[in-house]
Amino acid sequence: MQNEDGRRLRSVVSYVKRGGRMTVGQQRAWEEHWPRLGRTVGELPEGPLDFAAWFGREAPVMVEIGSGMGETTSQLAAAAPELNYVAVEVYDPGLGQLMLRAEKLGVENLRLLHGDAVVLLTEHVEPDSLHGVRLFFPDPWPKKKHHKRRIVSPSFAALVASRLAPGGTFHLATDWENYAEQMLEVCSAEPALRNRYDGWAPRPKWRPVTKFEQRADVEGRVSHDLIFEKR
C-alpha cells in the first residue's frame, strides 16, 4: 500500500498509540521546551533532517528508539555530552517526562522526535550517517499471534544497518528470551552487520537498570544485550 506521494505505508506497526493525561509538570515541559527540543516526525519537511543545524553543532548522532518515560535516556544523554542524542517516542507523557528529567540534569545535547522511528529512519535520515542506534526493551508482543508486530525484523535490521556509518553500533536489549533469540537471529542474518561478541554482549555497566529490568528480575526473566556494528 502506498500514499499519494508514492511512498510505501506500513500496514503493521510495532507500537500502540497510547493515550494518557499529562501531569502539570509534563504539560509545562511541553510548553517551555518542546519548541526548541522537539519535532513531530509526521510534520518534518521532506528529505534528511539536518541534525547539525538542529543541535547547533557537528557531532556524532545517536538515535534511541522508544525512550519511554525517559529515565534511562536522560542519564545516557547526560553521560555522553559529545553525542547529539536523539530520542524517538510515540507516548506524549513520556516525552514530557523526558524533558523534565533532562531539565533537572541540565542536559543540552538531547532532541526529541514524536512519532514512528521507522518513518524517521526511512525518510529523514541519510544513509551511512548515524553513530549508533539503541533499542532498549521494545514492546515484546509476547503472544505468538502478535510476533509480527515486533519492531525487530529483517527489513528493520536492514534499515538500521543502512543508516549506520561504518563502525556504527546497533545496541539492543530485551528481557524476553524468545524475543532475544529472534533479535540475535535476525541481526546475525543481516549481511551489513557484525556481532561484536559471540552471541550475547556483556551487560554494559553504563546502561542504567530500567524499571523493565527490575520487573523482569522479580519475575525471573533474564535480560540480554546484543551489540552489532556496521561492517
UniProtKB/TrEMBL annotation:
One of its GO terms (molecular function) is tRNA (guanine(46)-N7)-methyltransferase activity. Substrate binds at residues 143, 175, 210-213. InterPro entries: SAM-dependent_MTases_sf, tRNA_(Gua-N-7)_MeTrfase_Trmb, tRNA_methyltr_TrmB_bact. Signal peptide: none annotated. It catalyses: guanosine(46) in tRNA + S-adenosyl-L-methionine = N(7)-methylguanosine(46) in tRNA + S-adenosyl-L-homocysteine. It is an enzyme of class 2 (transferase). PROSITE patterns: SAM_MT_TRMB (PS51625). Keywords: Methyltransferase, S-adenosyl-L-methionine, Transferase, tRNA processing. GO terms for cellular component: tRNA methyltransferase complex. Pathway: tRNA modification; N(7)-methylguanine-tRNA biosynthesis. S-adenosyl-L-methionine binds at residues 64, 89, 116, 139. Its EC number is 2.1.1.33. It comes from the Bacteria. It holds the Pfam family Methyltransf_4. Catalyzes the formation of N(7)-methylguanine at position 46 (m7G46) in tRNA. Belongs to the class I-like SAM-binding methyltransferase superfamily. TrmB family. This is tRNA (guanine-N(7)-)-methyltransferase. It comes from Amycolatopsis vastitatis. The gene is trmB.
